[in-house]
Design brief:
The chain is of the alpha+beta class. It has one domain. The chain has a four-stranded mixed beta sheet with strand order 1-2-4-3, with helices on both faces. Strand 3 and strand 4 form a beta hairpin. Helix 7 packs parallel to helix 10. It is elongated, with a radius of gyration of 21 Å. 39% of the residues are buried.
């Protein structure tokens, strides 16, 4: 079995993405202040929003998905699998949640390793065999290991704020009656829009790489990359009910091991996940490393 090691590529991309987002964030604040928006309102609003997003986003995600946290007595096999994988990955035992839907998928959430939740749907438990399910759970645990949820939560903070300000711009100084109010409103709106678009693209790029890293982590933990490849092909080839898709499309889709998108013409630039073919090719390369 391959030895666990830090993913320097993931760490570098996280750092670069966070730096770029921080630059955008500071520039955005500077423009807001230059437009005579109340600094107190800005600080309180953004600070409060970030606090809620950081500490309660996992609960909101579980609630929106209808996920139920289950005890060991309620799901003994799932707990047994996750417990064994956590021992291999040197992780504390996360909470286990189940989403009652036929859509086969899984995701991890939580702000850190001690407050993580790994969720699976009833559909994925029924569709995959034990080795494939282990590979999927190892993928999600790698997200926990790499602290992906915390990084993505912090990264999406700027994007969320920019989107809110675009929608509620008049509350932040756009409604003043001085002679420059019209031009100030237009400039602030355009800046808000640009910041949101750029941060959106950066977060998607980071999300795609974290999926590659989580795939690799699964291969390292289980020692069987082919099991994850098989699981990905089964999940992607499943016929998913349209009603279930409508319930999970959107931001939450980025958390899944395979994105829940009903549209076929999604641009790669805006995708949260790499193409399935690229993920399978990467897993085959890892398998060759293991055999060597």
């Amino acid at each position: 079995m391959m030895k666990w090691k830090s993913d320097r590529g993931l760490e570098a991309r996280m750092l670069i993405t966070m730096i770029l987002l921080a630059v955008l964030y500071l520039a955005f604040l500077a423009v807001l202040l230059s437009m005579r928006a109340s600094s107190i309102v800005i600080v309180l609003f953004m600070g409060g929003f970030m606090f809620l997003q950081y500490f309660y986003s996992d609960k909101l995600i579980l609630m929106s998905m209808g996920a139920k946290v289950v005890s060991e007595s309620e799901a003994p096999e799932l707990h047994q699998i996750v417990s064994r994988l956590c021992a291999i990955a040197d992780l504390p035992m996360p909470k286990i949640a189940i989403v009652n839907t036929s859509m086969p998928n899984a995701f991890a959430t939580g702000r850190n390793q001690k407050n993580a939740v790994v969720a699976v749907t009833t559909g994925i438990v029924k569709q995959l065999d034990r080795s494939e399910l282990e590979a999927v759970l190892a993928h999600e645990l790698t997200h926990v290991k790499n602290r992906d949820m915390m990084v993505i939560t912090l990264a999406t903070f700027l994007s969320s704020i920019a989107q809110i300000l675009v929608q509620y711009l008049p509350f932040f100084g756009g409604g003043s009656r001085d002679r420059d109010s019209g031009s100030n409103f237009i400039v602030l709106f355009l800046v808000s829009l640009v910041v949101w678009i750029v941060s959106f693209i950066l977060i998607r790029a980071l999300s795609r790489y974290r999926e590659f890293a989580a795939d690799r982590g699964s291969a390292v933990i289980t020692g069987q990359p082919s099991n994850l490849a098989s699981a990905l092909m089964k999940i992607s080839g499943a016929r998913v009910p349209t009603q279930d898709l409508r319930k999970v499309e959107g931001p939450v889709s980025a958390l899944f091991i395979v994105p829940a998108l009903s549209g076929s013409a999604v641009m790669k630039l805006f995708s949260t996940h790499p193409p399935l073919e690229a993920r399978i090719a990467a897993l085959k390369s890892i398998e060759q490393e293991l055999e060597a």
